[in-house]
Amino acid sequence: MQNLSFNRWIIIIIVVLVILANGRTLPWPVTMLTLALSGGALLVLAWRAAGWGRIGGGGGRVTYWRGQRIELPGRAQPRMVGRDVWAAVTYALIGLALIAAAVSVVLTRSGI
């Protein structure tokens, strides 16, 4: 996601807003998928802004010596500092709100 240019982000935001603005005329699965995918993307951004990296990535180094694999621990990386904390929290809260809205759309349409 970091390879996307600023112009593409603006286009993506405009497309999402247009879909959500026309939510009453579009089929409900389109609205639900837009909300869920947007929320999921923001949760991924929150995960990356927090500096936790890949899921399951140990951050260590692997080397081979005389045919044996040796796993070495990685360097301790600094935890969240400054605005990264607020960026991660903001992304996570907005992402969770969008996913909750998607669940609400599904529950409303299914009659629960």
Walk me through the structure.
This protein is mainly alpha-helical. It has one domain (6-110). The chain has 3 helices and 2 strands; from the N terminus they run ααββα. The protein has helices spanning 6-21, 28-49, 83-110, and strands at residues 61-65, 68-72. A two-stranded antiparallel sheet has the order 1-2. A hairpin with a 2-residue loop joins β1 and β2 (68-72). α2 runs antiparallel to α3 (83-110). It is elongated. Keywords: Membrane, Transmembrane, Transmembrane helix. The chain crosses the membrane at residues 6-23, 30-50, 85-107.
Strand content: 5-15%
Strand order of the largest sheet: 1-2
Mean pLDDT metric: 80
Please give the largest β-sheet: 2 strands, antiparallel
Class from secondary-structure proportions: mainly alpha
Report, as a whole number of angstroms, the end-to-end distance.
Answer: 36 Å
- What is the ordering of alpha helices and beta strands? HHEEH
Total number of distinct structural domains: 1
> Which oligomerization state do the chains in this entry correspond to?
single chain
Helix content: 55-70%
The shape, in one word, is: elongated
Question: What Rg do the Cα atoms give?
Answer: 20 Å
- Parts with pLDDT < 50 across at least 5 consecutive residues: none
Number of helices: 3
| Number of extended strands | 2
Summarize the structure.
This protein has helices at residues 6-21, 28-49, 83-110, and strands at residues 61-65, 68-72. It has 112 residues and is mainly α. It has one domain (6-110).
